[in-house]
Design a protein that fits this description.
Largest sheet: none
Shape: globular
Number of strands: 0
Low-confidence stretches: 1-27, 295-304
Structural class: mainly alpha
Order of helices and strands: HHHHHHHHH
Number of helices: 9
Length: about 300
Amino acid sequence: MTMNTTVDNITSPPVTTNQTSEAPSASAHLTEPFRVALIVIYTAVLLVGITGLTVMINLLKTNIRSLTTIAFLNLMVAHFIFLLTVPFRIYYYVSPQKWEVGQGFCKLVSAMVHIHMYMVFTIYSILLTIRFLQFYKKTQRTEFYRRLHGLGASALMWFILLVIMVPVVLKQYGQKTPTEKQCFKFGDGITSHVYNLNMVISIFIITVSCLQTCIQVIILRSMFLKYGPASRSQQEFWVQIQNLSFIFIMLTCLVPYLLFRLQYLKNIESLHQINEVFLAITGLACFDMLTFTGKNICKVCWTR
């Protein structure tokens, strides 16, 4: 009897200790340094994004027929929709990483950062292409015929995106649902066709971004050769400088993530945490609103 009691006393404590130590790790999938980095990045995105949108709200009073203005308005809408989801990310990272709002909404918030990135790239590319064509005199038209045409085109684009494409994306996004209270961890569910699609899109965006960078460098070089030190007095020069700010944001916020994604898709489990940080950096594209606050640049923007 004495021996049995002694054995029971020795073996019981380890069982209790194991149960206690395993419980906290059931839902946490980000270590402390990465979690803090994500909180800092998304907080900066939220604060700067709200500030930029507030400053740029005066854009609504400008010529709605201008192609450039329509592009800026759609960029503002893309930022606004994305910023609506950022507080949920911050709350999740600040809390013990427990998602209490349902997996459907988790998919929406998780997918929105990707949708925002692709929308920003698309709008940048359209805007840069229009301005490149204007510089080389390939097009003279910079306005819609009527104000409603521009608003109608934008409404149609957002209808297709939000009503048709987003439901399709959410249906395919995150086929393998994470732990019940987890969120933002859908990499394990990537299928082969999703993998191939991601690779193609990433390579395409990287290639287009590099091509646009080369074109912009050529344009600025030609202006310096033509006008020399007097380039800064040319209105077109400041338009190109604004274009350069878009390209800078693409190269510093979007392209690094897409380059990393090429490697991440091959090592999803081991690179999950650093992938979340790179993905968060794409949200810093919201800083583009601050590039419009300079008096000279805004003056050029309103007149193009």
